[in-house]
Design the sequence.
C-alpha cells in the first residue's frame, strides 16, 4: 500500500497497451503516455485459437 | 509437430537467394506452360465466368475481340458463357497478371528466369493507365493499342533483349527502392533504369528508327512499364519457396475482383479465399467515387508477398501522399509489416530506415496472432466492364484467409 502511495507522489510514467481510448484519461490531466499498438489475436473462434496455439508451440 | 521455424528459414532463404533475370520474350501460346487456343488466363484464385466481376469480364470480352474470336461484346459474352473457353488462374501457369490479369494465346509475354534455381515466370507487357484491357476496357482504341504492342513493340523489345542477352531485374529493383519506388504503385525509377539499359540495344538491333522512337516514347509515357517486370520478378523469386514441408510462409496473395486468395508454402497448391475488399482509402480520378470501385483485383499483390509494394511503402513517400498521408505514415506501415514477416531482405532496402532490409516472407501465424493484416497498395478498376481504371488506393488483406490457412495447417501437421 505504501509503495503505491509513493508512486503517486512521483511523476507518473504510463504505458498503455491496446485500446487507445484508455490513454485519454491520464493525458487529460497532463500525464505523458506511451501507446503500445497491440490487438488481441484474430482467432475469435475456438477452432482457430486451438490451431494457432499448436502452431505457435513450435516457436519453443 | 514439425519444426516450423526451420522450414520458414529454408523458404525465406530460397526467396532471398533468387536471381530474377529478364531473358527473352515470346507469344503466350508458344512459351507459357499449358497455354492453348481456347484458354484464357486470369488474375487471382480460380473463378468461373458466372462469378467473374465486371472488369475481369470486360477484359475477357476484349481478349476475345483481340483474338478475332468475337466481333463485339454481345458475341464475346456468348462465347465466354458457352463453355467453349476455359479459364485458369495465371498462377497455375507460372504467370502473373496485373488487375484483371487476362492473358490470351496471341499476347506477347516477357520470359524471366531465376538463375539461382532455373525456374521461369511470365507476364504480358504493360499498356499504361486509364482505359486499358487490364482495367476491364475493350473499346476499339484499347484493342488497337494491344495490336500495336504485339506487332511493333514486341519485336522491337524482343530484339533489344536478345541483343543484351539478359537484364538483371534484382539490380534494377534494388536501385529503384532508393529512387522512391515501392515497385507496385510506383515504378517510375525502375522504368527509367530499364529505359537506360534497353534504349541503346533497341537502336542497335533495328533498321527502322521510327519504330524505336515510337516504342521509346510509349515506355517514357508509361511509368508502370516496369510493373509487368517487377511482378514476374517477384513470382519467379517466390516459386522455389513453394512446397517447403512445414513452412507457414505465404507464397501467393492474389485477387480476381470477387475473391481474395492466398497459398502457403507448406500447404501445396491449396487456395484459401474470402471476399475481396474494396480499398477503403483511395484517390479517385475526377468524376469517380467509391461507389464506382470494383473490389480489390489483380495478381500484383505478389509484390507484397515478396516484401515489396505496401511492405516497402516507407521507401515511397509519393504513394502515401496521393491518399493524403505523410512519409511517416508510410514508414509506420512498413514498420508494422516487420511484425508479421519471417525476416528482412538482404538486397532490397528502405533508405529512411537506415537501409534496413524490407520486411519479407509473410508468416500466417504472426498475421493471426498479432491481428495485423498484410498491407497492399493497388490500382482500382471500375466495377462495370468497359470503363477502366478509376483510381488507386490502400487496402488490407482480409484476415479470414489467414485464419483458414492456420486451421488447415494445424490439421495437416498435427
Sequence:
Amino acid at each position: 500500500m505504501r509503495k503505491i502511495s509513493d508512486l503517486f507522489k512521483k511523476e507518473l510514467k504510463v504505458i498503455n497497451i491496446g485500446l487507445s481510448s484508455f490513454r485519454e484519461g491520464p493525458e487529460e490531466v497532463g500525464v505523458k503516455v506511451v501507446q503500445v499498438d497491440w490487438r488481441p489475436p484474430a482467432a475469435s473462434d475456438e477452432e482457430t485459437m486451438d490451431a494457432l496455439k499448436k502452431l505457435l508451440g513450435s516457436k519453443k | 509437430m514439425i519444426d516450423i521455424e526451420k522450414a520458414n528459414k529454408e523458404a525465406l532463404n530460397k526467396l532471398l537467394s533468387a536471381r530474377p533475370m529478364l531473358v527473352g520474350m515470346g507469344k503466350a501460346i508458344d512459351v507459357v506452360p499449358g497455354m492453348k487456343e481456347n484458354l484464357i488466363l486470369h488474375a487471382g484464385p480460380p473463378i468461373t465466368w458466372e462469378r467473374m466481376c465486371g472488369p475481369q469480364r470486360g477484359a475477357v470480352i476484349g481478349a476475345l475481340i483481340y483474338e478475332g474470336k468475337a466481333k463485339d461484346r454481345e458475341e464475346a459474352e456468348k462465347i465466354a458463357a458457352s463453355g467453349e473457353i476455359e479459364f485458369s488462374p495465371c498462377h497455375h501457369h507460372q504467370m502473373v497478371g496485373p488487375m484483371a490479369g487476362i492473358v490470351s494465346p496471341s499476347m506477347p509475354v516477357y520470359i524471366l528466369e531465376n538463375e539461382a534455381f532455373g525456374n521461369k515466370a511470365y507476364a504480358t507487357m504493360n499498356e499504361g493507365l486509364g482505359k486499358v484491357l487490364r482495367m476491364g476496357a475493350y473499346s476499339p482504341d484499347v484493342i488497337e493499342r494491344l495490336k500495336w504492342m504485339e506487332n511493333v513493340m514486341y519485336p522491337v523489345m524482343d530484339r533489344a533483349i536478345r541483343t543484351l542477352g539478359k537484364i538483371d531485374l534484382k539490380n534494377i529493383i534494388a536501385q529503384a527502392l532508393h529512387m522512391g519506388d515501392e515497385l507496385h504503385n510506383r515504378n517510375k525509377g525502375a522504368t527509367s533504369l530499364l529505359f537506360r539499359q534497353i534504349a541503346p540495344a533497341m537502336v542497335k538491333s533495328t533498321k527502322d528508327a521510327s519504330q524505336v522512337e515510337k516504342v521509346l516514347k510509349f515506355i517514357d509515357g508509361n511509368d508502370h512499364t516496369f510493373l509487368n517486370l517487377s511482378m514476374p520478378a517477384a513470382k519467379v523469386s517466390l516459386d522455389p519457396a513453394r512446397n517447403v514441408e512445414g513452412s507457414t510462409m505465404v507464397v501467393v496473395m492474389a485477387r480476381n475482383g470477387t475473391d481474395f486468395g492466398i497459398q502457403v508454402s507448406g500447404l501445396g497448391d491449396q487456395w484459401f479465399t474470402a471476399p475481396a475488399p474494396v480499398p477503403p482509402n483511395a484517390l479517385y480520378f475526377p468524376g469517380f467515387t467509391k461507389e464506382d470501385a470494383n473490389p480489390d483485383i489483380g495478381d500484383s499483390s505478389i509484390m507484397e508477398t515478396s516484401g515489396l509494394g505496401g511492405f516497402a511503402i516507407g521507401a515511397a513517400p509519393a504513394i502515401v501522399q496521393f491518399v493524403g498521408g505523410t512519409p511517416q505514415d508510410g514508414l509506420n506501415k512498413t514498420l508494422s509489416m516487420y511484425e508479421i514477416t519471417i525476416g528482412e531482405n538482404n538486397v532490397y532496402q528502405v533508405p529512411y530506415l537506415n537501409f534496413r532490409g524490407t520486411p519479407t516472407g509473410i508468416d500466417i501465424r504472426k498475421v493471426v496472432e498479432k491481428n495485423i493484416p498484410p498491407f497492399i497498395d493497388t490500382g482500382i478498376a471500375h466495377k462495370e466492364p468497359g470503363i477502366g481504371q478509376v483510381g488507386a488506393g490502400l487496402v488490407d488483406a482480409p484476415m479470414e484467409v489467414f485464419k483458414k490457412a492456420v486451421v488447415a495447417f494445424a490439421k495437416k501437421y498435427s
The CA atoms of residues 164 and 201 of chain B lie 7 Å apart. Chain B touches chain A through 23 residues (CB under 8 Å).
